[in-house]
Write a structure and sequence with these properties.
It is a single chain. This protein has 2 domains: about 210 residues, Medium-chain alcohol dehydrogenases, catalytic domain (Quinone Oxidoreductase, Chain A, domain 1, Alpha-Beta Complex); about 160 residues, NAD(P)-binding Rossmann-like Domain (Rossmann fold, 3-Layer(aba) Sandwich). About 25% of the residues lie in helices and about 25% in strands. β14, α9 and β15 form a beta-alpha-beta unit.
């Protein structure tokens, strides 16, 4: 089969790989119809995440048709159209029993940190992902869901991570009626988080980024106020001015490991790899909120330390919530939001990249070319 293959930082290409096979009675093989490139894939592409191995296939957002099932699979049949959450989870462990599917204890040798994730580094289990023609889906009875007849494919694929994660980010902010919410990062997850903040009762939503085309999308998709941090000497001071010098009630970090804004911190993390990620956005969040506020962290960071202003967070009495999104737990409510027209994830899809052009797709998304917000990948499996 054809698949995207990692060959080192900034080096990906399409290659022929062996088609995956059933390895366990609970497995299914899914023929991929549509996938996506995620901002967290760029952390792998840029060499930010440890134990990202040569030959690995990325892609944790995908939908497809069931091509083969193991002997124990009961809930799926060959020919079913399915959407697959980015989490791989067993459904029965202590964490899964509590809906914490992203923290499953049975799918990753490094499970003290995180559960299993498709197409990510071997710190998350080393499972090949869906930027390919076929993908092996473990625990097929508990992970995938059949795509509702009324749902568009492009909405379905963007519910497997991006939309669920943005919604979860707003959810972790514990937003109450009238709250001022600041979202750092106008990428796909940040845009969904900003839109979702309104659904949870926010009275004011502010989005901060440095790319004008993404800020324009924040105004039209999320109806948010926007600030380009490059146009201000101190964006934290601007946020204080904008909130009567009190600070926001909630901040959501949707940037993570490669945040711009502070040259030294960006270089020591993104270039020299001396930190697990640039702490710029998270530190801005800590400084921009009022005392007693809540910070939600959706941005991905590596396992090394980051120079986070934790003392300031403690002295301000902040509550910090973070986790990888347990996608399937969000789906029932998100399905209703999509069906009722409150959310339309496919509005953020800007490009459709054939699998044979995957290298160009990654370069375009990484370099923020051609107004790219969210690229989809079309495998065209035979």
């Amino acid at each position: 089969m054809r698949a995207m293959v990692y060959r080192g930082p900034y080096k990906v290409r399409m290659e022929e790989k062996e088609r995956p096979s059933i390895e366990h009675p609970n497995d299914a093989i899914v023929k991929v119809q549509l996938a996506a490139i995620c901002g967290s894939d760029l952390h792998l592409y840029h060499g930010m995440m440890p134990d990202t191995r040569i030959g690995h296939t990325f892609g944790h957002e995908f939908i497809g048709v069931v091509d083969e099932v193991g002997s124990s699979v009961r809930n799926l049949a060959v020919g079913d159209r399915v959407m697959v959450p980015f989490n791989i989870f067993c459904g029965t462990c202590w964490y899964c029993a509590r809906g914490l599917y992203s923290n499953c204890h049975n799918v990753n040798p490094n499970a003290t940190a995180v559960g299993g994730i498709y197409g990510y580094s071997h710190t998350t289990g080393g499972y090949d992902g869906g930027q390919s023609e076929y993908v092996r889906v473990p625990f097929a009875d508990v992970g995938p869901s059949k795509i509702p007849d009324w749902m568009d494919d492009e909405d379905a694929v963007l519910l497997t991570d991006m939309t669920a994660t943005g919604y979860f980010g707003a959810q972790l902010g514990d937003i109450v009626q009238g709250d001022v919410v600041i979202v750092f990062g106008a990428g796909p997850v940040g845009l969904v988080a900003a839109r979702s903040a309104w659904l949870m009762g926010a009275g004011r939503v502010i989005v901060i980024d440095h790319l004008d085309y993404r800020l324009e999308k924040a105004r039209t998709f999320a109806q948010a106020e926007t600030y380009n941090f490059t146009q201000y000497g101190d964006i934290v001071l601007e946020m204080k001015k904008a909130t009567d010098f009190l600070g926001a009630d909630v901040a959501i970090d949707c940037v993570g490991a490669e945040a711009d804004g502070n040259f030294v911190q960006h270089v020591t993390s993104s270039k020299l790899k001396l930190q697990g990620g640039s702490p710029v956005a998270l530190n801005w969040a800590i400084d921009s909120v009022r005392k007693g506020a809540t910070i939600s962290v959706m941005g991905a960071y590596g396992p090394l330390f980051s120079a986070v202003k934790f003392g300031d967070a403690m002295n301000k009495g902040l509550t910090i919530h973070t986790n990888q999104c347990p996608v399937k737990r969000q789906w029932p409510r998100l399905f209703e939001h999509v069906r009722n027209g409150y959310l339309k994830p496919s509005e953020l899809a800007t490009h459709r990249v054939p699998l044979e052009h995957i290298a160009e797709g990654y370069h375009m998304f990484s370099a923020k070319l051609d107004g790219c917000i969210k690229p989809l990948v079309v495998p065209t499996a035979a």
